[in-house]
From TrEMBL:
Residues 762-777 have a biased composition (Polar residues). This is Integral membrane protein. Residues 1-68, 724-743, 758-789 are annotated as: Disordered. Residues 46-68 have a biased composition (Basic and acidic residues). Keywords: Membrane, Transmembrane, Transmembrane helix. The chain crosses the membrane at residues 116-136, 179-196, 244-265, 277-298, 318-336, 356-378, 385-409, 435-459, 504-525, 545-568.
Length: 789
């Protein structure tokens, strides 16, 4: 069979541009500018496409091209392709908690503090799972089975609960049996979360990365960026361990609710001594398994220096299996016949949410302590909130979890109590925990604080826009001024700058959330009453205001949950809405699931190996020069893929980024992985790198690396719009492009050609090497002398 060299002749191999799109996705036809495309490798989920005319470009003589052969890597289906993925919106708190793990400040010699930071984040993530399952238990066990099912008036009003009514004296009328039956709902949810986590791992994250050895004894091993480690994008072991632990925690939460309710009855005068002893034994067993769960979560159990295929099979099978066994025993224990046991008031153990909230607050404060220590050890000027961005986002994750759990409970309680505000009237026997009422009271205050921040930043944008107005015409000499056009350009630039001020929105809201949570816990724990309820039953002005806030907040909590469900349902049916949600996941699910296994899957664990394999095998087979060209989020994937290449292949690859959030978002919010030191390392390892950006772009920005010899990474800001008024080249008004259409700028082709020109010209691979796909034909110097910016 003829080799590629024999078909093409002895001429140089073709150049290749590998395009990687950004957030929101696109089609290969749009990326390549041709309606006729063909997929050359990959599948329906993610693949590499070419123009039909370029499908066999390597087997034809090299033509006099003005541009290289172009390939488009389309990965949008990893985040917004399947309609069922719209339901991932309900996992938003888990996704936010997983981000916190990667937001730690950079540190060179603080390994113990780094490990402590990760451990605390994993414990916060575990508490969110407990919060979710506890919220479902509150609805199913407390509100429905215990409170409504235990009252004849409420049960009779709901025909589907009639078989539980005590007045029927049926088999399911006993409180313990009602609780055991209701436990099926949270148990099924826990099982569903386990199934989805396992299935999404197999479908999206199980791709093997390109393996290469790492010398742990090398002097520079300790300063190696984490993204270059071969096992960074393969979290099979840690995801399996965390999945087992979180599944077990869900089962134990349900078991604790059942056991506590039954044990409280058995400890009362006249209770059965045998059942009381069984309850204590069951609580001891439950505690022992819970300690094992915490131990597994605390022990990270993952190596990134190699592709870790090890599975702790005893842990991932025995731990959830044991917890499920404890749940079965708890159901049998609770369902045992206890004459005289009636349900009244709230389910015993209704202080659970207070305990969870206190634990989350202490963990967040501990995370803040670790983050401050790491930041002070290696401060970076653009790290947001002085290194406290991680704790701030962790606070928001816990707040989101509380709103979801509380929103469900508030709406179900409102439905069951006849339409009155839960806990404030209607049927007094149907009311959610007091803490949820206090949290509902705080929500209007938080929204008011958010509104104040929005007004402050609106005024700031107006002032920046006003200051920019005299400078706009400097970029368009000789043009006739147009007030409307000038104001539009200045306003676009001013609004684009709000991205850099995001920390001063996140920080205050997180602080207000933490304070509101602390006040709610204090009020619920100290008084045990719904806020605004006067002792004598006649509310005064303060009580009336509190009741009003509680009523508004209650509705808002329920509305927030309903809006998320409605949005998820709409996205399930509408591809356009699904793409909108996909943009959220493009940013939030870039990182591996290192903290929460029930978060939406990490698409980069598929995309980065795809890109790495493609670059390594193409350069190894044909020996040509390659420029990987990434826009927006695609530039982050491109940089991560280049980091995974071996030094020989990097010598044949150039990196072109545009509209890139590498420094502006990732470098600031994830400084340990994209901060100044890692980006400077990437600059030194890749032969040439160029970054294009605009002042009007709200997402992309400069890389901001220090100046050095040779061309720099950042080019000066591109002009946007390309023309101020009508010109012979632009007879119609030129649009303000902002974050889009960088390739429409004439400078784009010139910068790409310059990158290819700085790559070494490679000779064609020999016939005996044409089929090899693991190493490039020629090795680049370990320290290229012509390392362009």
């Amino acid at each position: 069979m003829e080799s590629a060299r024999e078909i093409r002749g002895a001429g140089p191999p073709p150049d290749l541009e590998l395009l990687v799109h950004g957030v929101g996705g696109t089609t290969p036809q749009e990326m390549l500018g041709d309606p006729r495309t063909v997929r050359v490798t990959g599948d329906e989920t993610a693949g590499v496409h070419r123009r039909t005319d370029d499908a066999d470009a390597e087997t034809r003589p090299r033509e006099d091209r003005e541009s290289p052969v172009r390939e488009a890597y389309v990965w949008s289906n990893l985040t917004s392709g399947n309609s069922s993925r719209a339901l991932w919106l309900l996992l938003l708190p888990f996704m936010v908690a997983n981000l916190v793990h990667w937001m730690r400040p950079a540190a060179d010699r603080s390994e113990r503090t780094v490990r402590g930071y990760g451990l605390l984040v994993r414990l916060v993530a575990l508490s969110l799972t407990v919060t979710l399952i506890a919220g479902v238990c509150e609805v199913a066990l407390d509100l429905v089975a215990w409170q409504c099912g235990g009252a004849d008036a409420c049960a009779d009003a709901k025909s589907w609960l009639g078989f539980m009514a005590p007045g029927n004296h049926g088999w399911w009328s006993r409180p313990g049996r009602r609780l055991a039956l209701a436990a099926v709902l949270p148990t099924a949810l826990t099982g569903l979360l386990w199934y989805l986590s396992n299935r999404t791992w197999s479908a999206y994250e199980s791709q093997a990365p390109l393996e290469h050895s790492v010398d742990e004894s090398a002097p520079e091993a300790g300063n190696r960026p984490g993204l270059c480690l071969p096992g960074f994008w393969y979290g099979r072991r840690i995801v399996a361990r965390l999945r087992a632990a979180h599944t077990a925690a869900g089962f134990l939460t349900i078991a604790a609710a059942l056991t506590t309710a039954a044990a409280t009855q058995d400890r009362r005068p006249g209770g059965s001594g045998l059942l009381d002893a069984a309850g204590w034994a069951l609580l001891a067993l439950l505690t022992a398994v819970a300690v094992a769960v915490v131990f597994v979560v605390c022990h990270r159990g993952r190596s990134e220096s190699k592709v870790d295929n090890t599975l702790d099979r005893i842990t991932i099978t025995a731990l959830p299996g044991t917890a499920l066994g404890v749940l079965v025993l708890s159901s049998l224990y609770a369902g045992w016949s206890r004459p005289g046991w009636v349900s009244h008031g709230k389910l015993p153990g209704n202080q659970t949410f207070c305990v969870i909230a206190i634990g989350q607050g202490l963990l967040i404060l501990a995370i803040a302590g670790c983050a401050l220590a790491l930041y002070r050890a290696a401060p970076a000027g653009r790290t947001p909130l002085y290194g406290l961005a991680g704790p701030a986002v962790a606070t928001l994750a816990c707040g989101l979890g509380a709103v979801l759990a509380g929103g469900v409970a508030q709406r179900i309680a409102d439905w069951l109590d006849g339409g009155a505000t839960p806990g404030m009237g209607g049927r007094p026997e149907v009311a959610p925990p007091v803490l949820l009422s206090w949290l509902a009271t705080a929500i209007p205050v938080l929204l008011l604080a958010l509104l104040v921040l929005v007004l402050v930043f609106t005024v700031r944008v107006w002032r920046v826009r006003k200051g920019l107005l005299p400078t706009i015409m400097d970029g368009y000499p000789g043009e006739r001024p147009d007030g409307v056009r000038t104001r539009r350009i200045a306003g676009t630039i001013a609004r684009a700058g709000v991205t850099d001020s995001a920390p001063w929105i996140v920080g205050p809201i997180a602080l207000c959330t933490l304070l509101a949570g602390g006040l709610a816990v204090t009020g619920a724990w100290a008084t045990g009453e719904v806020p605004g309820r006067a002792a004598d039953g006649t509310p005064g002005p303060v009580d009336a205001a509190a009741q009003t806030c509680q009523a508004i907040g209650s509705w808002m909590m329920g509305l927030a949950f309903l809006m998320m469900v409605t949005w998820a349902r709409r996205a399930y049916r509408s591809p356009s809405a699904r793409r909108t949600i996909g943009i959220l996941w493009d940013v939030g699910t870039f990182w591996p699931r290192a903290a929460h296994p029930f978060a939406p899957p990490c698409y980069a664990e598929r995309a980065v190996p795809d890109l790495t394999w493609r670059m390594q095998t193409w350069t190894g087979t044909y020996g040509g020069r390659l420029v990987i060209s990434g826009h927006s989020q695609g530039s982050v994937l491109a940089a991560a893929a280049v980091w995974q290449l071996d030094p020989r292949t990097r010598g044949q690859v150039a990196l072109l980024t545009y509209g890139s959030p590498l420094e502006r978002l990732y470098g600031r919010w994830f400084p340990a992985y994209f901060g100044p030191a890692p980006l400077l390392s990437l600059h030194g390892e890749v032969r040439c790198w160029r970054n294009l950006w605009r002042y009007t772009d709200p997402i992309g920005g400069p890389i901001r690396l220090p100046d050095g010899p040779g061309p720099q990474v950042d080019r000066g800001a591109l002009k946007d719009p390309l023309a101020y008024g009508r010109t012979p080249e632009h007879p119609l008004p030129a649009p303000i492009l902002g974050h889009s259409e960088y390739q429409a700028d004439p400078l784009f082709d010139r910068e790409r050609a310059g990158l290819l020109a700085r790559l070494p010209e490679q000779s064609c691979s020999s016939p005996e090497n044409a089929g090899q796909t693991t190493t490039p034909v020629r090795s680049a110097p370990a320290d290229p002398p012509d390392r362009a910016g």
